[in-house]
Amino acid sequence: MKSITVFTPTFNRAYCLHQVYDSLVAQTNPDFMWMIIDDGSSDTTKALVQSWIDAKKIDIQYIYQDNQGMHGAHNTAYQNITTEFNVCIDSDDFMPNNAIELILSKKELLQNQSYAGMIGLDADKNGAIIGTTIPNDIVDSTLNDLYYKHRISGDKKVVLKTSVVKQFPLYPIFNGEKLVPLGTLYLLIDQKFKWLCTNDVLCVVEYLADGSSNTILKQYRVSPRGFGYSRWVKMKYAPTFKEKLKSAIHLISSAIFAKDIRLLTKTPNPILTILAVPFGVVLNCYIRFKTNS
Known about the structure:
Blueprint: E1 4-10, H1 18-25, E2 32-38, H2 45-55, E3 60-64, H3 70-80, E4 85-88, H4 99-104, E5 115-123, E6 140-141, H5 143-149, E7 156-161, H6 162-165, H7 183-190, E8 194-204, H8 216-222, H9 224-237, H10 241-258, H11 262-265, H12 270-275, H13 277-291
Parallel strand pairs: 1-2, 1-4, 2-3, 5-8
Antiparallel strand pairs: 4-7, 5-7, 6-8
Helix pairs in contact: 7-9, 8-13, 9-10, 10-13
């Protein structure tokens, strides 16, 4: 059995999926498999992947499912992964040629039972680090501490121990919605585990026009229950009052979009939620204004 699964959720991304494939074929360490979660594509993804399977250059597992959104694809991956480690590489991103080698060079350190996995860096195609690096004196940390105590910024690449991720609930699926923020799971994991930290670049990222990073306001509007769930978790575990308040404000807005006051009954902080009502109404109006065009 391979040591690590690289999994890629994809939806109508046949035009750029080759970047992931080419980078995996070029890996200096072949001790991995590639799992592609096709989240209901209607383009040529299936035929393209089959051609790569037939080429037999790397081990590939292809799973097709009806469209559930990014978090639903992650659920499917976590239900099917059997390797010791896993890492998600999005369909518009790719890995440096030595990424698998770098990850597996930390395999012995990752045996530490207090670790959920490893945090590495993302870079753009020009080699510029996304956000900031991790301070060199930090060997391990929770994600919360990295962002709020050590003040790092920018997206980072998460490598998970499969045995750890299977201890936590799957992302909830809400009928008609396509997104639950992925960081919700990592915040839950933070409550029990730390992460080994490295400044190795493990992923090269590209933010496409149809990617979630560029459509976030629209997604607030069309996936209010998914974001509501995320806000419940953040209100409970966020490390600062500011972040708890921000989550309460977003929860109000989500409840308005969902037309479901029951979203508010699950809040872990009722008083803060009540105080956030006027701000949540303003946020909801702002999102409506910005997404009506």
